Amino acid sequence: MRALGLDVGTKTIGVALSDELGWTAQGLTTIKREENEEKKDYQAIAELVLEHGVDTIVIGMPKNMNGTIGPSGERSQLFADELSEYVSSTIKMWDERLTTVAAEKMLISADVKRKKRKQVIDKMAAVMILQGYLDHKGS
């Protein structure tokens, strides 16, 4: 039973995958998005779900610092609703406040160059989203 973590942005989708026991999250890929081609995004995720035997998809829900849901959160919820038409996996929303900031700080502290950070930041944020969910589920 595996879980897939998604950090859904307007230009990319960071993807992370859990191990089979659901204990750890690892970066899997970054999906480049094209304007008005959302169907390709859903199909790419559906292929990953089938390939890796995913039963749960965890999508980052960007909330405002006061806990309210703004336009970005509404876009994530819409993405989840539309993705549900392409997969039979359970879809969970997970509070992702500050995951991208934390991922960037982690990469900076690891002395990763700016150009390389831009290439992996979304995947790293997906790892943090999924790992937060896995840790919470396990406690």
Automatic annotation (TrEMBL):
<dbReference type="GO" id="GO:0004518">
    <property type="term" value="F:nuclease activity"/>
</dbReference>
<dbReference type="GO" id="GO:0016788">
    <property type="term" value="F:hydrolase activity, acting on ester bonds"/>
</dbReference>
<comment type="function">
    <text>Could be a nuclease involved in processing of the 5'-end of pre-16S rRNA.</text>
</comment>
<dbReference type="GO" id="GO:0000967">
    <property type="term" value="P:rRNA 5'-end processing"/>
</dbReference>
<dbReference type="InterPro" id="IPR012337">
    <property type="entry name" value="RNaseH-like_sf"/>
</dbReference>
<keyword id="KW-0540">Nuclease</keyword>
<keyword id="KW-0690">Ribosome biogenesis</keyword>
<protein>
    <recommendedName>
        <fullName>Putative pre-16S rRNA nuclease</fullName>
        <ecNumber>3.1.-.-</ecNumber>
    </recommendedName>
</protein>
<keyword id="KW-0963">Cytoplasm</keyword>
<dbReference type="Pfam" id="PF03652">
    <property type="entry name" value="RuvX"/>
</dbReference>
<dbReference type="InterPro" id="IPR006641">
    <property type="entry name" value="YqgF/RNaseH-like_dom"/>
</dbReference>
<dbReference type="GO" id="GO:0005829">
    <property type="term" value="C:cytosol"/>
</dbReference>
<comment type="similarity">
    <text>Belongs to the YqgF HJR family.</text>
</comment>
<keyword id="KW-0378">Hydrolase</keyword>
<dbReference type="InterPro" id="IPR005227">
    <property type="entry name" value="YqgF"/>
</dbReference>
<dbReference type="InterPro" id="IPR037027">
    <property type="entry name" value="YqgF/RNaseH-like_dom_sf"/>
</dbReference>
<feature type="domain" description="YqgF/RNase H-like">
    <location>
        <begin position="1"/>
        <end position="103"/>
    </location>
</feature>
